[in-house]
Design brief:
Chain B: This is Probable cysteine desulfurase. Chain B: Catalyzes the removal of elemental sulfur and selenium atoms from L-cysteine, L-cystine, L-selenocysteine, and L-selenocystine to produce L-alanine. Chain B: Belongs to the class-V pyridoxal-phosphate-dependent aminotransferase family. Csd subfamily. The complex is a heterodimer of chains A (141) and B (406). Helices cover 49% and strands 11% of the residues of chain A. Chain A has 6 helices and 2 strands, in the order H-H-E-E-H-H-H-H. Chain A has a two-stranded antiparallel ribbon. In chain A, strand 1 and strand 2 form a beta hairpin. Chain A is globular, with a radius of gyration of 14 Å. Chain B has 406 residues and is α/β, with parallel strands linked by helices. Chain B contains 14 helices and 17 strands. In chain B, the strands form 5 sheets. In chain B, strands 4-10-9-8-7-5-6 form a 7-stranded mixed β-sheet, with helices on both faces. The radius of gyration of chain B is 22 Å and the shape is globular. The chains are: A mainly alpha (141), B alpha/beta (406).
Amino acid sequence: MALSINDTQEELIEEFGLFDDWADKYEYLIDLGKKLPGLSDEFKTEENVIKGCQSRVWLHAFMQDGKLIFQADSEAVIVKGLISMLIRVLSGHSPADIMKADLYFIDRIGMSQHLAQTRSNGLLSMVKQMKNYALAYSSKA
Amino acid sequence: MASIEQIRLDFPVLDQQVNGSPLIYFDNAATTQKPKAVLDALSKYYSEDNANIHRGIHALAERATAAFELTRKKIQSFLHAESSDQIIFTSGTTASINLVAQTFGRANFQAGDKILVSNLEHHSNIVPWQMIALEKGAEVLVIPVLDSGVLDLDAYRKLLQENTVKLVAVNHVSNAIGTINPIQEMIDLAHAHGAKILIDGAQSVAHMEMDVQRYNMDFFAFSAHKLFGPTGVGVLYGKREILESMPPYQGGGEMIKEVSFSGTTYNELPYKFEAGTPNIADVIAFSASFDYLNSLEKGLVEEQENALLTYATEQLSQIDGLKIIGVAPNKIAVVSFLIEGTHPQDIGVLLDKFGIAIRTGHHCAQPLMQRFDIPGTCRASFSFYNTKEEIDRFVTCLKRVVTMLL
């Protein structure tokens, strides 16, 4: 049985708890970004682009055995790191669970500044788009 | 002579820690910081003089009106304009350009007319022309930019050749890459071919002197907040005969002479274009920007900024994989760059962690980014209150950031 959404959030909070300065934290985030498999060009379509980001971010979603799977890519590696965490937390869960997920880990790992609108790196748009997919697939189901 | 260290004390915002490091503010092309004199003037106005202007007959209204009109006089003197009634207050450069597009453009553009903009323009000097062109069946054509970031003047001459251009709209200085355009030559060429010309001075006013009469400008637009003044104040200068021939823009109070239901007559310049209660407080506080700039030693701004540009260019060029976008021989103190293997946004996010404020992205000049086929740039833009020591720390942190990212 896969970890629940909140189990994964707790895991991330613990991992980030190991770092006491911002540089280590960001190096880890950059590392997560580099390790994210990304998307092949066929999914880097205009339709999959998340608006409101300074760098281009593509999000692709599909259903598999009742679970919603996310894959994503970005030109900017910090954004990739952020979205890699969102994928780890949300991907592979039912649309219903994704819709009601409270993503408290972002604040707890000290990344809530990335939710601010001025950042225009679109973490907020990414979360919104993931929840929109969940809503769309739950109404189809 | 005041040292830069002393001058920095005049700008309260500069003295602070950001993310645990002393703030380095290299985003002056986005907005400049405000000297204490401007902040004090703003506070004094609201504490002592607040009143609506031009209509009241009481003491406060008279004081506020006099202070408001004094700023207009100071702008006239700053621009070397013929008279203060050719100085129109707007909310910013964008609003000034829209005013010209919606009045001059609406009255003068016809189907088949050409409007020239350059490939260096900010969206504010592109979109207002596209909007009115669409409405009038006119066409917006582009003056191309060379690889160096300099405008292609040969192409400009060719575009003017058929005498179908009604208006040329170009910036004095590019916000994205800092190129200083040869506006005298461009103005003369436009006039020789029967075109009017609007110069967007948003990025030049903080860096160089302006003389609208010597240049023979038809229109000049700029914003107070890029000249050490408050946000929400813009200026439009125009030649008298052109401004007088233009229909009014927005309708409302202040811009009228007499109103009746059988017809309304309009006020004279500049009030014809200033409908409604203006941004009184910020206009009045803007006055202190000019006093402050006049208090600085002559030549200091130019000298300090040229030194910063040269030093930053030298130091940044030593970073592996760093490419400067825009290497025009005439530039203001702006360095726009990319570093191989990194995205500008990542650089900006990490520099902020070191307390360093730069701008990343397309700088509201997407057509220019398309021209260079880049997603955006990192832009460090300097003002006279910046120092070489700040550039040193910026370069050290930038190297560290690149190591983190690669």
